[in-house]
User: Which sequence fits this backbone?
């Protein structure tokens, strides 16, 4: 179940996480906030550890029309006893997505499903706090989905890392969910060498470090470099290094992932360069610093021809997502592969 901030980014992030983890999967269906995949159950662990754009994930047992009699019949025909092997307690949780099926009260749904399960497996007892097994009931569109909850995103996980909670704040800093999504879209994995060439005060680098990447931050503004170092230290995170350097001339080779948000808008400084030229020259330089087949995720205003510049530099386009920030700014998130 996706967190729903954006129409396509949350699902794309899940796909990128699974791909970079070497998991074979197939997308079966997507609706508002609900993504169903054919993938190994163990793959959910990678999603839960790396994504911030999900609420919970688990095993789908199947679905039926959202009518009370059909729901009861459907639950009774599930292998509940086999499913609950080794468990002694359970709870039923429900969620309604997008205002669907308001004629079915969630409290009644939970009670009915719980009663059916209890009748099928009398040895099980209901425990609302820390049960051995959670049955998830999802009402969406005109459908009912029954699942087993595997992982839930802990509450309060992001709040301490919000930009205004950090020692050094800058208004152009990406919020944690978007920053983490960009890291994941770049197919960064724990232990990988990751760089943000326009790191600012460290918003994207922080999220890469949290999931276990070896991070390198660069910025042409020394004050930003110092701010990023201070923010990283505040969260107890280590970096391979922070450099006061021009992103158009990346040092060294062998980077395994890049995610970056070049400066644009009133709150950012391009140090005298036009953002279009900055992005073009950055992509030209990044080509030689990134490993072959590795990925780069870049955010830029729609007016910047990222696709064209990427093609000229020799990158292959993997995906593109648009997000309207306000009336005068639509941001694009472009994922490129070093072909």
Assistant:
């Amino acid at each position: 179940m996706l967190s729903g901030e954006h129409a396509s980014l949350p699902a794309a992030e899940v796909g990128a996480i699974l791909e970079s983890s070497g998991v074979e999967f197939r997308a079966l269906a997507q609706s508002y906030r609900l993504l169903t995949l054919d993938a190994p159950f163990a793959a959910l662990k990678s999603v839960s550890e790396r994504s911030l754009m999900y609420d919970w994930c688990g095993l789908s047992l199947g679905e039926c029309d959202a009518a009370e009699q059909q729901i009861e019949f459907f639950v009774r025909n599930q292998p509940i006893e086999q499913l609950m092997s080794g468990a002694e307690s359970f709870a039923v949780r429900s969620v309604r997505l997008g205002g669907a099926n308001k004629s079915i009260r969630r409290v009644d749904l939970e009670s009915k499903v719980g009663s059916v399960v209890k009748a099928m497996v009398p040895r099980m007892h209901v425990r609302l706090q820390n049960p051995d097994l959670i049955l998830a009931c999802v009402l969406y569109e005109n459908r009912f989905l029954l699942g087993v909850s595997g992982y839930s995103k802990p509450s309060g996980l992001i709040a301490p890392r919000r930009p205004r909670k950090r020692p050094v704040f800058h208004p152009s800093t990406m919020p944690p969910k978007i920053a983490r999504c960009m890291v994941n879209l770049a197919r960064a994995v724990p232990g990988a060498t990751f760089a943000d060439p326009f790191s600012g005060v460290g918003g994207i680098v922080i999220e890469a470090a949290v999931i276990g990447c070896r991070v390198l931050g660069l910025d042409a503004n020394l004050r930003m470099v110092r701010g990023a170092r201070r923010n990283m230290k505040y969260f107890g995170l280590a970096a391979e290094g922070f450099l006061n350097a021009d992103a158009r001339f990346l040092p060294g080779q062998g980077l395994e992932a890049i995610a970056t948000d070049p400066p644009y808008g009133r709150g950012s400084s391009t140090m005298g360069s036009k953002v279009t030229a900055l992005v073009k020259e950055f992509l030209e330089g990044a080509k030689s610093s990134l490993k072959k087949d590795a990925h780069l995720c870049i955010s830029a205003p729609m007016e910047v021809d990222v696709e064209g510049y990427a093609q000229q530099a020799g990158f292959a386009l993997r995906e593109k997502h648009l997000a309207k920030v306000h009336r005068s700014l639509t941001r694009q998130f472009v994922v490129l592969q070093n072909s």
